[in-house]
Design brief:
It contains 4 helices and no strands. With about 100 residues, the protein is mainly α. The protein has one domain. The model has no long low-confidence stretch (mean pLDDT about 85).
């Protein structure tokens, strides 16, 4: 029994296979069902998790940028938190200089 021919899979297919193995908890069965080696499964799983992590970091960065610089907040007189911080810093600096 020789090696099976290589099958190119899309990133989505790899992600689905990795998800299936994680959900079922039976990696051996998942690998058998899809005709892949366990080492390949774990490589795909690690790649999927890394992709998810970097995507999450990017989403968090975008959210923080919008939250602090683009969205006015009623709690700081309809300014962005960044604008409120700058106004506070100027006031604090002026008070320090007047002492």
């Amino acid at each position: 029994m020789g090696r099976k021919p290589r099958v190119d899979r899309t990133p989505e297919e790899k992600w689905q296979i990795a998800q299936e193995g994680m959900k079922s908890g039976n990696v051996s069965e998942t690998c058998r069902r899809h005709g892949i080696a366990q080492t390949l499964y774990y490589r795909w799983k690690d790649e999927a998790e890394q992709g998810s992590l970097s995507e999450a970091r990017e989403n968090i960065s975008r959210y923080l940028e919008e939250y602090n610089h683009d969205r006015p907040h009623r709690g700081v007189e309809n300014r962005t938190p960044h604008e409120a911080y700058l106004a506070f810093a100027v006031l604090t600096k002026n008070e320090t200089l007047n002492v």
